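Exam prep: given the inputs below (a chain plus pyrrole-2-carboxylate), describe the expected output before reading on.
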Amino acid sequence: MSASSASPAIRLPFDELQQLLRAIFQHHGCSEKVAAALACNCASAQRDGAHSHGVFRMPGYVSTLASGWVNGQAEPKVTDVAAGYVRVDAAGGFAQPALTAARPLLVSKARSAGIAVLAIHNSHHFAALWPDVEPFADEGLVALSVVNSMTCVVPHGAHKPLFGTNPIAFAAPCAGHPPIVFDMATSAMAHGDVQIAARAGQALPEGMGVDADGQPTTDPQAILDGGALLPFGGHKGSALSMMVELLAAALTGGNFSWEFDWADHPGAKTPWTGQLIIVIDPSKAEGERFAQRSRAMVEQMHAVGLTRLPGERRYREREIASREGVALSAEELAGLNALLR
Ligand code: NDP
Ligand code: PYC
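Solution:
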């Protein structure tokens, strides 16, 4: 579900929104570096109309910081593990500054070995995943990332929730075209979109989740009040969600989605888990041809009638925002300003 940006009350220049968000993060105890990474991520999501992870998330960040659940001053520790392997301990802080700290080493390894892995653990991720992969494709690299979240998804064939909403994001360069990017929860819906629907009093389509008794429901509040989401696509989405748990948590040393307990931190919202990023340099095998092959594939998809590639809606929103500013409702802007008090 993407929230509409029709007739927005206010349009803010992207830089102004980023500065406002950075000030909020710093006001609530984040270091400059952490505030910059999170503000860039959250403002970019709002700019691209990725509303489930735009400014809607700011109160959750703030309540989490206030609860002491996350370290807003964390200094990530980067370890050069092997020719194609970088590990980073996010030190109980956010995953995005850990990625920022490890990125130069990761890219130089991907360019020399042809492929490199970044394993982030002891990290919190509360955001859209595409901002973590798209910049690699801007540099001609292919990137795949997975992150696990918090128990709220019933594995296919099971009776109780276990997995997180566990998104997978992918980015690849495409000649004469912005990168091809997709970013999708492996649950039938993102948890953020369930919250947005509940707030708006909107029923969900069938097949998204179950209530506290395990019965199918279209009521988002019933999912939030002790119910759970289902994986998308039955056993297939469930298998992908299981894979995300293995790659993002078991492989990195992070927590599985069910392994952390935030009960002693009222207000905590950010899953304390792990994240994996795999970066491939396609020039090692295909030289410049990979991006041209991408382009050829896109042309074939259009030739068979496709009108919307994943990522294209965001790019369209981004283009509008670059001309007109980032869309915010008056309530959203007032809510952000209130977080500075
Ligand atoms: P959507 O279902 O809205 O979109 C998934 C992907 O499909 C996007 O790449 C989207 O492109 C594309 N898409 C959507 N509709 C179409 C269409 N009709 N034709 C072609 N492509 C289409 O995303 P989700 O609700 O699954 O996830 C939303 C966000 O929530 C993601 O950014 C995800 O990373 C985030 N999330 C984060 C978690 C975390 O732990 N940090 C956990 C779960 C989710 P486009 O973007 O252009 O619309
Ligand atoms: O929307 O599912 C979600 C989510 C979980 C953690 C951050 N976003």
